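RECORD CONTENTS
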Amino acid sequence: MDTTCKAAGLFPHPPIMIPEIGGKELSRMALTVRTEEEAMKRMVSEGMETVVIISPHNLCFYDGPALFLAPTVEGNLAAFGRPDLSMTLSIDRMLSEAILKEAEPLIPLHRVDEAEAARYGKTLAVDWGTFVPMYYLLKAGFRGRAVMLSPCFSNYEMNEILGTIVERCAAKLGRKIGVIASGDLSHKLTKDSPNGYTPKGILFDKAVMDALKRRDKKPLTAMTPDFIDEIAMCGLPSVYFLFGVLGKRKAAMPCFSHEGPFGVGYGVCLYLPEEEPEKEEIHDVRVKLAKESIRYFLEHGKIMKTPDTFPDELQGRAGAFVSLHEFGALRGCIGTFLPCYRNVAEEIIHNAKAAAHDDPRFPPLAKRELPDLTISVDILSSPEPADMSDLDAKKYGVIVEKGARRGLLLPDLNGVDTPEEQIAIAKRKAGIGKDETVRLYRFTVKRYY
């Protein structure tokens, strides 16, 4: 799928950045202003039709991000002594509704209209986190529409998924978009900061800016909640959103700066996505067959027939598990530890359909999700009796058995490092008490991607 995202970036939002408010103080953040002006000019020159902006200072919800929907949304800077500084944004309702629909099976995206905002004693408004970057975008000549979002602070990965959804919806509609991830970094960079000071503040800022420069969010995922609370920030959820929008596409970074003149970190970066890289081809016949099975079921509502001829790898009989991941998160996993069908091909066809449609932990897969799936197929060896000394959590899967109750856990799973952990989880899955004695079996797995 070709991207229609023409530009995307991180932008700070201090009201003092507005010349009418900052006055002479603006000279203390001249680098930030200069970089943002250049970035906004470049965004406008790319010919975007709609700007998608996420701000942490609008109405936020604990359990998920929000999307604000009205024909127009107005706002001003009266809270900062300038009610005469105002703007009105026309909302791209088609793209907004598409994002809401696409998000429904994946994340709890709140739909906030005038009535919903009133329930919380709020009115739909252009908050200052939206106002400040939009001030510079409008100054650069932007005359299109907007999609307004707020992030989730309790689950950063949810914002990344939202970014992926936004990009995908824009591509499906053919809408040329620019993306503004609005956010400031640490609010405790200097000892004269009104928010207090911690030496960890600059460590946070450096980590975020380095992650943006390298296009690698791993340094962010290592941050503990206590560390994030101590440095006081508002922009990290927006950074995750930006990573979701960009995905794994190649991108140039013509604008990049950071400074903290008032004890608050102001980071600016702009990405201009380059040509779409070629999608990785699926080479393994087992994974190809699993994907064909899922596609056939989604299109026809029934199990596909086993091909008359198929490669030697799909002959024979064995247990098989099919696992589905979407945006890095599990989306379905169903399998058989003993063969139930005539050959491996039939085993994969049936288990792939079941993983997509019958896993009780997830809603049935929608056809629109298929392009974003990562599929793996595990082929199991025949189980053999074992005791604790025979187990290895990385090498062997385990089966626990108590009468008719049976639980299974695959090997080499993230966060499962010991046989004891394997057995405890397998017991829970089977409804077996933790102190009940069980028969143990082990098996090996060969995983295909």
In short: The longest strand covers residues 82-90.
